[in-house]
Design brief:
about 90 residues, mainly alpha, elongated
């Protein structure tokens, strides 16, 4: 009988390790960077100035907050990166 208990515990531990890996992958998939609209370098999502060209990152309704490309009037998605506007 104790053999079955040990097998049960090993299976439960394996499931919990698998679940922990899935949670870790979900957390790591969150976006942490964006691109400078002037030079295109990848920078921290919260950056105010570009670390490569030094220009101030001004994001307004004319530029995509995700990739920095110019937004065409009336579109709901960025034509460069595909992000939905208004998120």
């Amino acid at each position: 009988m104790s053999f079955y208990v040990i097998i049960f515990l090993v299976i439960q531990m394996a499931k919990s390790v698998k679940d922990a890996k899935v949670v870790k992958e979900e957390k790591s998939s969150k976006k942490t960077t964006k691109f400078c609209m002037y030079c295109g370098s990848e920078i921290n999502l919260t950056a105010v100035y570009c670390i490569k060209c030094g220009r101030q990152l001004i994001f307004n309704n004319n530029y995509c907050k995700n990739c920095g490309s110019k937004i065409l009037p009336g579109v709901k998605f960025c034509t460069n990166c595909g992000i939905k506007f208004g998120e």
